[in-house]
Write the structure tokens for this entry.
Amino acid sequence: MAVDGVTGLAVGTLRRAHHFALNVKDMAASRQFYGRVLGLHELQGPEIPETLTALVAAGKVANFRTPDGWILDLFAEPDLVPPHADPSQQFTRANHLAFDIAPGQFDAAVAILKQHQVPIDHGPVSRPTGRGIYFYDPDGFLLEIRCDPMP
């Protein structure tokens, strides 16, 4: 692929998302949120990449595997303060991270978020592409749970 005479990677060269890394203020709260509330598998023992073993042991990093295999890395940054205390005022270049769910499980996921008093930004919303709910993690990062339309 050439843009302005410069060749870039060919379509399909990048195979899939590998990992997404977030800085978190409170590692315990974030581990609870991503592991217990969202139900992601936290890597343990030999599952932890060798390059991160010492950081995980020190409580500075936690790793979670999503259902489709990519990794969510959490990096402890206890002094992290966003430029604006209101999480609806975006403070990073990232907009949101979306997780896909089966349509029949969407309402139950919304109920779990509410049961855990997770701050909801907006939704549930219905669109031709499916349903979604937008909410915040403990550090104010915007997340979405979305599903395709019911068949």
The helical segments are 27-37, 53-57, 106-115.
